[in-house]
Task: inverse folding
């Protein structure tokens, strides 16, 4: 047995170029399996992290058709009060499109939303100065706003934005608060935002109706229950479940996770095909090797090598070749994974399970695809084998 | 003459005697007993009788050459004697064992334990050094590493190449390579040394050396069988068996053979 390993290494070393080319398929296959699995894992982690930043305790309601029937803000607040065991807070949300202006500086990328006074807590936002929208602002429709750090930086360029005036679609709003930086103050990020009282925002959006609400639940363990209570309540109002939508972030997270899982499977499947092709490459080379070494096999058999011994020699050679390729592939995969992760922009570490599985698979491929040529070698007739040149 | 030698050899060799064989050979058992061997190849519609009823006994300690032209069937009989092949018909008893019906792996074991091959083309493994080449039969016999190295070096010593054990076969001359293959043939203490045209690839001087060495092995008590097409080599043996068209046409003392040449 150890003799066979020594022989295998010797034979691999004696034709380095060929051995390397044979291994290349396995190297690429294994490296890509590790890279893809690890990157997908990194991406899944990244996505679920972003989701939990957004808050997995949230349930959102959106009314799809406000023309036929609608639910007003007061009814929703009543519902919240009734269901205090399940829900912690609620805020209407109104999305407004528009341009921000301060003198000559302007911005069109900012997301402008009308929200309730609890929105700060619901989204776990933090203020760096001033205050958030208050109930009194909503009642009296005060033209006030709270801005994200990117907006503060862009429109007020270093000056304190507090109590300054900001024009949204030509109307002046007083900045009463600035939020803390959350996402590196980049354009289009969650720092590029403006919050207004929802009562003001409905006017800006030229629609008196509020079509979406966000709730937080008291305990995420009762997320399902909370969601169904909310759905039942809305059904009581709308009498048609097509008119509204209730979604929870945790549910969306599950959906995204199952999607990324599917993507992972798909990519691993593709990489597995390359491993299969590599296996066929090994079989091909081993067949050539058996033909080339017919004389050697004849000599060995004439000296008393049994079929099993020859079989073992060639199977081990194929197994060692593919395992060495597997190890090289693992090393390359482990080096490439963090590098590629950095390049794409999220952290990813080589997946241990991918390493173990791909090593096992590569060794197995060598043995399986090496078996056929090895059997051919083992069954050679010593007389014919000795006669071959 | 052959029988006398055999008696002496059998007496010297301490081994079990197959009772059935003992009957037919009146107390002495030949090392090789070919009984009416046929080897028939089917070539399309043609039937080729490579061995056409060969019967031959070779006793321990004999030095026999089997001579014949190419196509005479001498290679076929050498393959059968060497347990590389089995006859189509007939019985082959080697060292008391019936080899004629054996399977591949059992034949391999017989070759490993009882026969030392010396080939025309030396048949050394080019990528292994001399020691590794010589120890091959011991590896397949399952001998441990320490004993293997010891015995292989001893065997190389016998052919005068012990200090060259690290060399690769290509670094040696043809005569030296043939000596390595003899060392490999000897390492397992085989009952029979079977040399197939051992001088065929050598010039006459080195060929002479190899023949002298085989003679010396015979004098040390080994059974040596040489297969050759060359009468000048055949007469180096003590007994000559001439094969033509798959049949034995002469079997006797070397002097008798020389007289009919």
Result:
């Amino acid at each position: 047995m150890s003799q066979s390993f020594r022989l295998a290494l010797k034979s691999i070393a004696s034709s380095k170029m060929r051995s390397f080319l044979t291994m290349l398929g396995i190297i690429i296959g294994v490296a890509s399996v590790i890279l893809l699995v690890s990157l997908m894992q990194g991406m899944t982690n990244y996505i679920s992290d972003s989701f939990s930043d957004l808050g997995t305790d949230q349930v959102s309601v959106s009314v799809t058709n406000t023309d036929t029937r609608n639910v007003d803000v007061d009814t929703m607040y009543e519902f919240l009060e009734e269901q205090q065991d399940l829900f912690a807070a609620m805020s209407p949300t109104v999305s407004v499109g528009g341009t921000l202006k301060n003198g000559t500086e302007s911005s069109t990328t900012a997301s402008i939303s009308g929200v309730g006074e609890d929105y700060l807590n619901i989204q776990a936002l933090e203020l760096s100065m001033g205050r958030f929208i208050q109930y009194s602002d909503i009642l009296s429709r005060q033209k006030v706003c709270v801005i994200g750090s990117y907006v503060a930086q862009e429109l007020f360029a270093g000056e304190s934005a507090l109590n300054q005036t900001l024009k949204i679609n030509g109307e002046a709003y007083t900045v009463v608060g600035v939020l803390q930086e959350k996402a590196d103050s980049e354009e289009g990020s969650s720092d590029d935002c403006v919050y207004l009282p929802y009562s003001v925002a409905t006017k800006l959006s030229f629609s008196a109706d509020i079509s979406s609400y966000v709730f937080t639940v008291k305990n995420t363990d009762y997320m399902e229950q909370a969601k169904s209570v909310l759905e039942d309540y809305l059904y009581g109002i709308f009498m048609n479940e097509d008119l509204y939508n209730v979604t929870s972030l945790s549910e969306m997270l599950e959906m995204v996770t199952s999607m990324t899982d599917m993507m992972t499977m798909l990519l691993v499947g593709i990489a597995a095909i390359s491993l299969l092709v590599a296996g066929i490459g090994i079989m091909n080379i081993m067949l050539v090797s058996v033909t080339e070494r017919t004389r050697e096999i004849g000599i060995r058999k004439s000296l008393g090598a049994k079929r099993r011994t020859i079989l073992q020699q060639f199977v081990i050679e194929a197994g060692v070749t593919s395992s060495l390729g597997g190890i090289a592939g693992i090393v390359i995969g482990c080096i490439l994974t963090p590098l590629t992760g950095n390049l794409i922009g999220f952290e990813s570490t080589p997946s241990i399970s991918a390493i173990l599985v791909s090593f096992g698979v590569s060794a197995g491929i060598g043995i399986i695809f090496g078996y056929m040529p090895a059997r051919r070698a083992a069954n050679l007739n010593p007389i014919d084998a000795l006669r071959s040149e | 003459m052959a029988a006398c030698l055999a008696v002496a050899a059998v007496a010297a060799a301490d081994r079990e005697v197959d009772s059935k064989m003992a009957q037919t050979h009146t107390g002495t058992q030949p090392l090789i007993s070919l009984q009416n061997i046929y080897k028939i190849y089917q070539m399309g519609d043609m039937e080729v009788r490579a061995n056409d009823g060969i019967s031959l006994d070779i006793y321990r300690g004999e030095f026999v050459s089997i001579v014949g032209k190419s196509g005479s069937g001498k290679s076929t009989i050498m393959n059968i004697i060497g347990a590389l092949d089995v006859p189509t018909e007939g019985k082959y008893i080697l060292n008391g064992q019936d080899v004629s019906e054996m399977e591949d792996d059992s034949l391999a074991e017989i070759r490993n334990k009882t026969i030392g091959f010396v080939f025309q083309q030396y048949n050394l493994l080019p990528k292994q050094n001399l020691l590794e080449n010589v120890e091959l039969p011991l590896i397949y016999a399952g001998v441990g590493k320490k004993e293997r190295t010891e015995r292989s070096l001893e065997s190389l010593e016998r052919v005068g190449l012990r200090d060259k054990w690290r060399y690769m076969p290509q670094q040696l001359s043809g005569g030296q390579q043939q000596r390595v293959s003899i060392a490999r043939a000897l390492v397992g203490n085989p009952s029979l040394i079977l040399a197939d045209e051992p001088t065929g690839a050598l010039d006459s001087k080195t060929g002479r050396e190899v023949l002298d060495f085989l003679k010396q092995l015979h004098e040390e008590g080994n059974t040596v069988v040489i297969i050759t097409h060359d009468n000048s080599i055949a007469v180096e043996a003590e007994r000559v068996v001439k094969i033509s068209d798959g049949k034995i046409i002469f079997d006797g003392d070397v002097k008798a053979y020389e007289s009919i040449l």
In short: Residues 204-219 of chain B form the longest helix (16 residues).
